Amino acid sequence: MSIRPLVILPDARLREISAPVGTITGDVRKLAADMLETMYDAPGVGLAGIQIGEAVRIVTIDTSKEKEERKPLVLLDPEIVWTSGETRPYEEGCLSIPDYYAEVIRPDRVRVRFRTLDGETVEREADGLLATCLQHEIDHLNGVLFIDHLSKLKRDRVMKKFAKAAKREAA
Ligand code: ZN
């Protein structure tokens, strides 16, 4: 297992649409292990493959609290099959958009279908932080970022800030 460098805004890879996992090989298991390690190291509650530069539909999540036992979730090819009518605002952040947080309104509950690393297809319903996290990470698989759910004004401001920071670093 290894901690991998994170892909940061405005890196164009964040806009890529990730490919299905296909056969669950040793490489897929290694990628999932690397993602978990990178996520815990950051630390973050969720990570999508593309955030370490792998355009594959894998998501890792752990919404357990700091003092609790770790509850790692690995989702292969996850898709949202149902969302509740009720919505809820939640302050979101993203490891690819460091130190920026904003409130996003999303469905309060979702049902997700995915494959586990054992190749089993599972459906699971979630609410609260886990529901938000699932929607945020599955967005990543489709090249969507949480700032896309904000007003154009706010999004443009963030994009500009990160573009400037990237330019400074390159200089
Ligand atoms: Zn994110």
How are the elements arranged and paired?
Blueprint: H1 26-41, E1 46-48, E2 58-61, E3 73-83, E4 87-94, E5 97-107, E6 109-115, E7 121-127, H2 128-141, H3 152-170
Antiparallel strand pairs: 1-2, 2-3, 3-6, 4-5, 6-7
Summarize the model shown.
Fe cation binds at residues 94, 136, 140. The protein is of the alpha+beta class.
Can you give a write-up of this model?
It is built from three helices and seven strands; from the N terminus they run αβββββββαα. It is of the alpha+beta class. The protein has one domain: Peptide deformylase (Peptide Deformylase). The chain has a five-stranded antiparallel beta sheet. The chain has a two-stranded antiparallel sheet with strand order 4-5. The longest helix is centred in the last third of the chain and has 19 residues. The chain is globular and about 45 Å long. It starts with 25 loop residues before the first helix and ends with a helix. It binds zinc ion.
